[in-house]
Amino acid sequence: MFHSPQGSAAGRLAVCCADIGSVAKKRFGWARRYEGRKEEGATSGTDIRKLVAGVAADLASGLPVALGLECPLFVPIREDPAGLTSARVGEGSRPWSAGAGAGSLATGLTQSVWILRDLRRSAPVGVPAFLDWEDFRKAGVGLFLWEAFVTSDAKGRTHAADAEIAVNCFVARLPDIPAANAIHETLVYSLIGAALLRTGWSTDLGLLETPCVVIKA
């Protein structure tokens, strides 16, 4: 369970994920459920606006929200330039820079900013955003951002299904989310940190070198 020391609305956590992909080509999907309730209240879809509206409504009601994005949210910075496009530690044989990873990263650059910008506009003023799980848990409110990594063996039949798989994987690993982190890199350029800065959620430049949690299914 989430176990916020500060408490939260109904003591629950809303867990959401966006499967990043072209909206125009109908390759975007999302899913949301509440901690402890697999069926009741679970929703999914393909409309990016409905995802934002749902997350904003949860934040407005005082619920903490963990929002995952299925695309690389940080890239490694290596001393040896030959390793700059190599797989992140824990990523496996298919690095972030190859094929589907590179494509979702490029799409995620703009979609992450769009989502965070519209959330910033519609969420209550002063709601904080976090990349650190313990800070989020202690606050008991706000938006926690994480990277979803759904491998080819785990993928569903639709983009919304992929998002649902990632959400269920995240919930299954509660409450110790840091222990479930699948990628371990210390020197990074954080794309999600840059998106938080660009959309006004934070002014902390340290976010540019802060990796987020990666939950791998």
Task: Describe the structure in your own words.
The chain has helices at residues 48-60, 99-122, 133-139, 159-172, 191-198; strands at residues 14-19, 29-34, 43-45, 65-69, 74-76, 129-130, 143-149, 188-190, 214-216. It has one domain. The mean pLDDT is 92. The protein is globular, with a radius of gyration of 16 Å. 41% of the residues are buried. The chain has 217 residues and is an alpha/beta fold. The strands form 2 sheets. Strands 1, 2, 3, 4, 6, 7 and 9 form a 7-stranded mixed β-sheet that branches.
Number of helices: 5
User: Ranges with pLDDT <50 over ≥5 residues?
Assistant: none
Listing every helix as H and every strand as E from the N terminus to the C terminus, the arrangement reads: EEEHEEHEHEHEHE
Percent of residues in helices comes to 25-40%
Beta-strand content estimate: 15-25%
Total individual domains: 1
Structural class: alpha/beta
* Total number of beta strands: 9
Shape, please? globular
Mean pLDDT level: 92
Cα gyration radius (Å) = 16 Å
Distance between the termini: 19 Å
Main beta sheet strand tally, sense and closure: 7 strands, mixed
